[in-house]
Design a protein that fits this description.
It is a single chain. The protein is mainly alpha-helical and 120 residues long. 52% of the residues lie in helices and 7% in strands. It has helices at 2-11, 17-48, 65-75, 83-92; strands at 104-107, 110-113. Strands 1-2 form a two-stranded antiparallel ribbon. The longest helix is centred in the first third of the chain and has 32 residues, at 17-48. The protein starts with a helix and ends in a 7-residue tail after the last strand.
């Protein structure tokens, strides 16, 4: 495998080799930083705009598409069903956690609490 990388490196002209190396490093960092900024912007939006109802239950996080596909490719799509993985992902990426939710929701005259139990 290292022969493959070496042959690719040898194919790059020596006068632009450093530029290519810098682009590979900075390009990766650019994508990572852009995803972090987008997740923080989503967190601010979610905090300021609570959801009044959800047909799937309480929202716990907003996963950026880049992170979703990265981890799905690396660990398989079932990793998102694993509670331990989600807990660790949200611990390592606090900007994706949805902190704002309605304490009560009214649907057709019935009032439900945050856990989905009927209050009235």
């Amino acid at each position: 495998m290292s022969d493959l990388f070496q042959s690719l490196a040898d194919a790059i002209p020596s006068d632009i080799r450093k530029s290519v190396e810098r682009e590979l490093i900075n390009g990766f960092n650019k994508e990572r930083i852009a995803a972090t900024i987008k997740a923080k912007q989503n967190a601010i939006f979610e905090k300021n705009n609570p959801h009044t109802s959800s047909k799937f239950g309480r929202k716990i996080a907003s996963i950026p598409p880049e992170a979703y596909y990265y981890w799905s490719t690396r660990l398989g799509p079932d990793c998102w069903k694993d509670d331990q993985f989600l807990k660790e992902f949200m611990r390592d990426n606090p900007e994706v956690v949805a902190n704002n939710y309605q304490k009560r929701t009214r649907i057709n005259g019935s009032v439900f609490d945050a856990n989905g139990r009927i209050v009235q």
